[in-house]
Design brief:
By secondary structure, the protein is mainly alpha-helical. It is 81% helix and 0% strand. Helix 2 crosses helix 4, helix 2 runs parallel beside helix 6 and helix 4 packs across helix 7. The chain is elongated, with a radius of gyration of 19 Å.
Amino acid sequence: KAWDAAVPQLGLLAAQIADGDVMGRLAAADAAQLDAEALASQGSANGSHSCRQRAEQLVSKAVQRGFWGQTRRQVRTAFVEMSMLSERFAAGGLGRPEQVDVLEAAQQRLNAAMRSSLATVPSLAEAVGARFC
């Protein structure tokens, strides 16, 4: 029962995250939380180039530690748990559970959304650098 209830819910979650660019918006929100003090704490400004490099490092850290990273960890945990549940089917002699392909497609869709949102880090860093460098 747990499997049959969880697979459609994870599929719906994946669709909402991917279609709504949720991960991209979370990355942008994490980057928007940065301020000049955070950038200055990364080291003294040695020209705009080094400041922009620090901005990219800072944005990358902020995304990994912020809402983007928290959401990624929570979603991954759900998929890891579903994988373990699938293994319990096999261990219990029940064979492969139904809709594994649906779950795998949902996970691939989420992974693509996460990669796409991470690709925005340089432009988010450029915006942070433009504000503070």
